[in-house]
């Protein structure tokens, strides 16, 4: 089994710019934080994120300029409101949104 394993950095390196990336977790719970930070560290661009309900994960990727499109039902910090970087990017047209509730 060891031969089928790769490091997180190697796994993220296999994701090309512009790829569709589905992210687990729901709002502020169980998001893959290390993978999100590795996407940013490697300078990924033009990603198409798919998420049921995002929060910090989507907001930080958008803020880093890694995202071109988001498909999600909601992106925000629950009772604190919409994710600010995400909201600004969608309102300015920098990121497109396909809202699916």
From TrEMBL:
Listed InterPro entries: CoA_trans_fam_I, NagB/RpiA_transferase-like
MF terms in GO: CoA-transferase activity
Name used for this protein in its record: CoA transferase subunit A
């Amino acid at each position: 089994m060891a031969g089928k394993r790769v490091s997180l950095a190697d796994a993220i390196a296999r994701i090309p710019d512009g790829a569709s990336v589905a992210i687990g977790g729901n709002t502020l719970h169980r998001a893959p934080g290390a993978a999100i930070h590795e996407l940013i560290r490697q300078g990924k661009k033009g990603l198409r994120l798919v998420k049921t309900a995002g929060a910090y994960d989507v907001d930080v990727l958008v803020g880093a300029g890694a995202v071109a499109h988001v498909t999600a039902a909601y992106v925000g910090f629950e009772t604190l409101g919409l994710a600010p970087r995400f909201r600004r990017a969608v309102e300015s047209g920098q990121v497109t949104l396909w809202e699916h509730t």
